Amino acid sequence: xxxxxxxxxxxxxxxxxxDIELYRRINKLEGEVxxxxxxxxxxxxxxxxxxxxxxxKGDSKFKEPFYYLEGDKTPYCPVCWEDxxxxxxxxxxxxHNAIQYWDCPNCDAxxxxxxxxxxx
Length: 120
What we know:
The protein is of the alpha+beta class. Helix content is 52%, strand content 20%.
């Protein structure tokens, strides 16, 4: 049984006992516990996001104009990574006169590179 269930049971017992003021306080505490639980979940999600970014930072290599992960042939957008620490794959558009053109689906940045490596 979780803390919220416990608080509801205590609240129900207090309500049956007829102590309205104590019942209001229990309800207020229940709301605060819900807020704390929500804040805890947000903090856990932020930690997960930061851990992913840290792993990407440690595993990625910069080869102008992109970032690459070993074994991943698709480059990552340097704008998204350097601005927001988001690892977003660039999308290959085409090749013209030996120049490859790439777009970022997240930030809409456009890239061109001559003689880009076909893999990292």
